[in-house]
């Protein structure tokens, strides 16, 4: 299947950045847009073949604009959305701490075993994200694309970083994924297993 380079751009600051916004569809702030723009401007080798985006506005609006200016194809990938936080959607960690301190601490320390009420489990999230990337790699293979820019979310980047470094999934929330920053991975398939490393 060969190797593919995938650069993941985390969306910038959005209206509800102080909360767990999961699938909430909030817009980027002016600052958030600038964070992403300045990161893209610093990329010296912009040789992407395609731009892929989560379907949520805080990713898709910027991706659409970038696809226009770079005249690159744009793919919308619903599987690459943020983790769904159930009843914690749009709630700040401070508020959760005040009402369910134990559950919050459990989720923070062992997200593989605990999840917010009515939320997606970490395993469901992982399955969905890996499916999203497998679909993307098939597209890339079929189109002879070597390198993609994926505009996505903190949870997605943290999950891939965890898996790439073979860290336990419970370390997920300790991984780095700053607003508006770029993280690069190399993907390849070995014996039908999806493998990737941090660049």
Short description:
The chain has helices at about 30-40, 55-70, 95-100, 100-110, 120-145, 155-165; strands at about 5-10, 50-55, 75, 145-150, 180-190, 195-199. It is of the alpha/beta class and about 200 residues long.
**Number of spatially distinct domains:** 1
Per CATH, the class reads: Alpha Beta
In total, how many beta strands? Answer: 6
Q: List the uncertain runs.
A: none
Architecture per CATH nomenclature, i.e. the level-2 architecture:
3-Layer(aba) Sandwich
Taking the sheet with the most strands, its summary is: 6 strands, mixed
Computed CA radius of gyration, to the nearest angstrom:
17 Å
CATH homologous superfamily?
Phosphoglycerate mutase-like
CATH level 3 topology: Rossmann fold
Per DSSP, the total helix count is 6
Strand % is 15-25%
| SSE pattern, N- to C-terminal | EHEHEHHHEHEE
> Helix share of residues?
25-40%
Main sheet: strand order: 3-2-4-1-5-6
- Label the structural class: alpha/beta
> Which descriptor suits the 3D outline?
globular
- The end-to-end distance, rounded to whole angstroms, is 19 Å
**Averaged pLDDT, please?**
95
Keywords: Hydrolase
GO cellular component, one term: cytosol
InterPro entries: His_Pase_superF_clade-1, His_PPase_superfam, Phosphoglycerate_Mutase
Protein name: Fructose-2,6-bisphosphatase
Fold and architecture overview:
The protein has 199 residues and is an alpha/beta fold. It is 38% helix and 18% strand. The protein contains six helices and six strands; from the N terminus they run βαβαβαααβαββ. It has helices at 30-41, 57-70, 93-99, 101-109, 122-143, 154-164, and strands at residues 3-10, 50-53, 74-76, 147-152, 182-190, 193-198. Strand 2 (50-53), helix 2 (57-70) and strand 3 form a beta-alpha-beta unit. Substrate binds at residue 58.
